[in-house]
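Appendix B. One record, verbatim.
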Amino acid sequence: MNDLEHAKKARLRAYTPYSHFKVGAAIRLKDGTMVYGSNIENAAFGLSNCAERSAVFSLISQGYDPKDIIQITIIADSNGPVSPCGSCRQVLHELLPKDAKVILGNLKGETKTMTTDELLPYAFETFDEDNT
């Protein structure tokens, strides 16, 4: 199964009773392990969580090392490749290795591949790489 198919599988797990906009994310680790995330909505919208953050937070809470991430693939039923929100861009920039790929896709098979720096130029940073 390719990474877009994994992201589609994650998308099916989304809980979206308000927006009906399902998003799935699949993170591939160096050893081939896949970790999924989907968006989870709540009536108090600020308490909702996006697929990208769900996947990264799940990965860390399961004991995986974010340094082992080689790529994240994100998919939604969007006109073009889905675009992560600002919060997700910041989390991906901070927690993914700088050489990890970010693959954005949609259900039509359109994709765009980039780095976290390309996804979020001028990211907020409070530390240098030696103090992580």
